[in-house]
């Protein structure tokens, strides 16, 4: 039986379409991610250096909060001082709404290098500040914005180079912030409280330490895919239920989980702990967070990214509920370790979860930056609300109840996000 000419033509057309599609994807750099290799792990290392330098410094704000309230800003209220750190925390994520699309359109180099220079400039300007408005401008606005322009292109570059191991790679990258959160608070506390260096030179020395790390990152972090030329922002992303639910979940987690990072040293001092030791609690917390970012990241690739993120949010909330019950130095150390480990899943876990809702690899930066940018509104609100609660009630019970409830709510909203996926609530996603 001779083949039908129309069938031959149809088959040829299908083969041509597949070949053309494959060649087009390779031309645009959209072939399968290497999921490892020297280049991918070099980019992960460069991203870890960025997080060491930026989020590691931001995680030290508890040191600054306690120092400002007893030195330069001793006449200001706790909630007013907290606005400096909360504004920086907000902008480091909100700037991702700009940094993400810029990465998709221009690649990492044109975004990261200028941002690195701006970040170092902001640190040096912070070292010269003496008045409240100066701290808000340098440490709040300039430092926060430059952090966002550094972090989101770097995270997007990591996601482009991994597939099955995205959560593990992001956990390793973001763990740089935990290591920075160990080294920087200890160094700052030692220089501020036990030497004659003073505030200015203490901050400048940290700036000199992170300079070579940022220089390495500027050379290492690169985009794998060709730039996209479509719309700068993708507003239609919020029409997708799973994207909107995930953003809402992260919003409520952010509303609560910054509390111990901002207030654990102040709370410890109120319990009679020595000022220097109270500052070391942040280092202990961030050391535990290193394992909390890496281990859950490995588990997330195996058991589901939304599963691990929801568990991290719920357990972090429960731990925050217990904050006011840590009354002795040993209890505070154990509390810091527990909080550090489980809260570590939120930043790296949230970033990895976005890989589930991104339809096109070339829009990674835009989806990630937009989603985290909207969620970051919570980091602007949370710490000042806690400061206002502290001023009104004079204790930490109300703070722990409010913040813990927000994290738990975020965890359950993550579970709700699972219902919008093809695998459903019980799926491994």
From TrEMBL:
Compartments where found: Membrane
InterPro entries for this protein: MFS (IPR011701), MFS_dom (IPR020846), MFS_trans_sf (IPR036259), Proton-linked_MCT (IPR050327)
One GO term describing the cellular component: membrane
Superkingdom per UniProt: Eukaryota
Gene3D superfamilies cross-referenced by the UniProt entry: MFS general substrate transporter like domains
CDD domains linked: MFS_MCT_SLC16
Keyword Membrane annotated: yes
Sorted UniProt keywords: Membrane, Transmembrane, Transmembrane helix
Bilayer-crossing regions: 40-61, 81-103, 115-133, 139-159, 166-189, 201-222, 243-265, 277-299, 306-326, 332-357, 364-381, 393-416
Presence of the UniProt keyword S-adenosyl-L-methionine in the record: no
Major facilitator superfamily (MFS) profile domain span: 42-422
Membrane topology of the entry: Multi-pass membrane protein
GO molecular-function terms, A-Z: transmembrane transporter activity
Pfam families (UniProt xref): MFS_1
Family: Belongs to the major facilitator superfamily. Monocarboxylate porter (TC 2.A.1.13) family.
Protein's name in the database: Major facilitator superfamily (MFS) profile domain-containing protein
Organism: Penicillium antarcticum
């Amino acid at each position: 039986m001779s083949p039908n000419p129309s069938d031959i033509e149809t088959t040829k057309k299908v083969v041509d379409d597949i070949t053309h599609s494959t060649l087009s994807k390779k031309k645009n750099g959209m072939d399968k991610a290497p999921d490892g290799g020297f280049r991918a792990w070099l980019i992960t290392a460069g991203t870890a250096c960025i997080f060491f330098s930026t989020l590691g410094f931001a995680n030290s704000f508890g040191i600054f909060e306690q120092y400002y309230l007893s030195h330069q800003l001793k006449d200001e209220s706790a909630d007013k001082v907290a606005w400096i750190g909360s504004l920086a925390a907000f902008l480091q994520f909100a700037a991702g709404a700009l940094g993400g699309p810029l990465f998709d359109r221009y690649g990492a180099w044109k975004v990261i290098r200028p941002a690195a220079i701006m970040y170092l400039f902001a640190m040096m300007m912070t070292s010269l500040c003496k008045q409240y408005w100066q701290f808000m401008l340098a440490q709040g606005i300039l430092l926060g914005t430059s952090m966002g322009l550094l972090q989101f292109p770097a995270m997007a570059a990591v996601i482009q180079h991994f597939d099955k191991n995205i959560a593990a790679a992001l956990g390793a990258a973001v763990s740089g912030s935990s290591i920075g959160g160990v080294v920087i608070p200890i160094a700052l506390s030692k220089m501020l409280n036990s030497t004659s260096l003073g505030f200015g030179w203490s901050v400048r020395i940290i700036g000199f330490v992170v300079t070579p790390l940022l220089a390495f990152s500027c050379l290492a972090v690169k985009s794998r895919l060709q730039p996209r030329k479509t719309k700068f922002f993708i507003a239609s992303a919020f029409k997708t239920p799973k994207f909107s639910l995930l953003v809402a979940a992260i919003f409520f987690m952010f509303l609560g989980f910054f509390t111990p990072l901002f207030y654990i040293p102040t709370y410890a001092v109120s319990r009679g702990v020595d000022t220097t030791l109270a500052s070391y609690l942040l280092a202990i917390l961030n050391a535990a967070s290193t394992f909390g970012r890496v281990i859950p990241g490995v588990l997330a690739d195996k058991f589901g990214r939304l599963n691990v993120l929801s568990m991290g949010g719920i357990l972090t909330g429960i731990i925050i509920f217990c904050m006011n019950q840590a009354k002795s130095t040993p209890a505070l150390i154990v509390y810091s370790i527990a909080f550090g480990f489980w809260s570590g899943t939120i930043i790296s876990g949230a970033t990895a979860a976005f890989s589930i809702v991104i339809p096109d690899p070339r829009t990674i930066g835009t989806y990630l930056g937009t989603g985290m940018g909207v969620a970051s509104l919570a980091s602007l609100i949370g710490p000042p609300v806690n400061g206002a609660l502290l001023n009104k009630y004079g204790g930490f019970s109300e703070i722990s109840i409010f913040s813990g409830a927000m994290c738990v709510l975020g965890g359950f909203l993550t579970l709700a996000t699972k219902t919008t996926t093809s695998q459903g609530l019980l799926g491994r996603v």
